[in-house]
Specification:
heterodimer; A: MetI-like fold; flat; B: alpha/beta; six-stranded mixed β-sheet; 9 helices; 10 strands; 26% strand; binds adenosine-5'-triphosphate; binds magnesium ion
Chain lengths: 225, 246
């Protein structure tokens, strides 16, 4: 092999890459919380709704969990302009990831609803807990404990998924790696450094989530899978 | 004085007619035991008294006051006076032992937390759980969870205590402890309704025994009579079967 690794040239771009990582993080966080919110609405409909609304939610979830996310974003980015809706790459990616996340997070949150134990609610009622107190002392702590690990996992998956944005020209971490690559052609160095930054981001997130989960919700989360 | 008066109460789970024309009076300070085969409606009767199962017809009086089960303030009122220990304990899984016992007295009854804490420690020591204060329910055995549930109910200082199968998960020595506690409480005037399969326990503590079968009360009698010369054939069959199993 005649290729010698030279990181000095690439390291100059480190601040540039880190700023890209910040954009990746933004997309992940916004799409995650957007997906949580929308997913909560879907999960509520799915749990308490009637037959018709249930079917609609099921179709939505089935569609978004059975087609590639990339295709979904392509659709938003290239097909919607045909209908006169023009989205910037950043918004298309953000919207696509949010809609996709909503489908997965709907299912996760629904599992949380279903795991509420009637036994405990009966006890709370006979102890004269008001509805708000039931939610505060019994339902939420339990749901958070059950949901925290799968939600954390999904957040990490989404963080890595943000690299798709590069395909649409968003200058997040992977997009910036593409840019440097076409200037310097130091592909191995660039993408190994990029991978390292992703590892650092996900590791920090996993660590923080595990600490929060264990401390606040007694959720059992391992830091290294 | 009748503290609880149930007059031809009927209750349903969807289509299942689970309580049929129940008539039962319980006086203050009385210990009434409910016996009967599995599925006969014993737990359901207790649940009805705390408003978890709403009677469809009939009248229930608590301290001479007619209860409207569809009125929130009536429900709150009965639940202030009646505490229940569930057959499945129904502890809060996300709270440790001490918190399970203290939460309602502090957050709902708004009593002084320090005083509640002292009472909780006293009760938990009495049921032998002083070493488990910080444990969570899923770290405890069935018998231990049951004792937490007993302490939780007692810490509410109820006038009436409903106990569903409280001896089933306890060791014989603990049964004696619990029995002593129950007698003591009864002597202090607490009214109790107890579901139990433990016939010796029933014989020893009860002032009266109610035999239920298939959602109906078949016989109400003294503990001596119900085991030695019951007036109904179905009671005789049931008691005979249970005594033979021993
Ligand atoms: N939540 C419920 N929904 C529907 N049916 C129920 C429910 N709880 C109890 N039942 C039914 O009601 C009947 C009476 O049940 P209950 O629990 O009162 O019996 P039990 O006398 O306490 O029995 P055991 O000795 O086994 O505890 C049974 O046929 C049971 O299947
Ligand atoms: Mg029962």
């Amino acid at each position: 092999m005649g290729y010698t690794l030279v990181y000095t040239q690439v390291l100059e771009f480190l601040p540039y890459l880190i700023k890209g990582a910040w954009i990746s993080l933004q997309i992940a966080i916004l799409a995650f919380f957007g997906g949580m919110f929308f997913g909560l609405i879907l999960a509520t409909i799915r749990t308490f709704g009637n037959k018709v609304s249930n079917k609609i939610v099921i179709c939505y979830v089935t569609f978004f969990t059975n087609t590639p996310q990339l295709v979904q974003i392509y659709f938003l980015f290239f097909a919607l302009p045909e209908f006169g809706i023009l989205l910037s790459p950043y918004i298309a990616v953000l919207l696509g990831m949010t809609l996709n996340a909503a489908a997965y997070l709907c299912e996760i949150q629904r599992a949380g609803f279903l795991s509420i134990r009637q036994n405990e609610l009966d006890a709370a009622k006979t102890l004269n807990f008001s509805l708000v107190q039931q939610v505060k002392y019994v339902i939420l702590p339990h749901i958070m404990r059950v949901l925290f690990p799968p939600l954390s996992n999904h957040y990490i998956i989404m963080t890595l998924g943000t690299s798709m944005a590069a395909i649409f020209g968003v200058e997040e971490l992977t997009g910036r790696a593409f840019n440097i690559n076409s200037e310097t052609f130091r592909s191995v160095e660039i993408f190994s450094l990029t991978a390292l930054i992703y590892i650092v981001i996900t590791f920090i997130a996993t660590f923080l989530l595990a600490v929060i989960g264990r401390y606040f919700f007694k959720a059992k989360i391992r830091i290294i899978q | 004085m009748h503290q609880i008066e149930i007059k031809s109460a009927n209750a349903f789970y969807e289509k299942l007619h689970v309580l049929k024309n129940i008539d039962l009076n319980v006086d203050k300070g009385e210990i009434v035991s409910l016996i009967g085969p599995s599925g006969s409606g014993k737990s359901s009767l207790l649940k009805m008294l705390v408003g978890l199962l709403i009677p469809k017809s009939g009248k229930i009086f608590l301290n001479k006051t007619l209860i409207n089960f569809h009125n929130q303030s009536d429900l709150r009122n009965i639940r202030e006076q009646i505490a229940i220990v569930f057959q499945q304990y129904n502890l809060f899984q996300n709270m440790n032992v001490l918190k399970n016992v203290c939460i309602a007295p502090t957050k709902i009854q708004k009593r002084n937390p320090k005083e509640v804490n002292e009472q909780a420690l006293y009760l938990l020591e009495k049921v032998g759980l002083q070493d488990k204060l910080k444990s969570y329910p899923d770290e405890l055995s069935g018998g231990q969870q049951q004792r937490v549930a007993i302490a939780r109910a007692l810490c509410l200082n109820p006038q009436i205590l409903l106990l569903d199968e409280i001896t089933s998960a306890l060791d014989p020595e603990l049964v004696k402890e619990v029995l002593d506690t129950i007698r003591l409480l009864a002597s202090e005037g607490m009214t109790m309704l107890i579901v139990s399969h433990e016939m010796n326990f029933v014989k020893e503590v009860s002032s009266r025994v109610v035999f239920m079968d298939d959602g109906s009360i078949i016989e109400i009698n003294s503990p001596k009579n119900i085991f030695e010369k019951p007036s109904e054939k179905r009671t005789l069959d049931f008691v005979g079967k249970i005594l033979k199993e021993k």
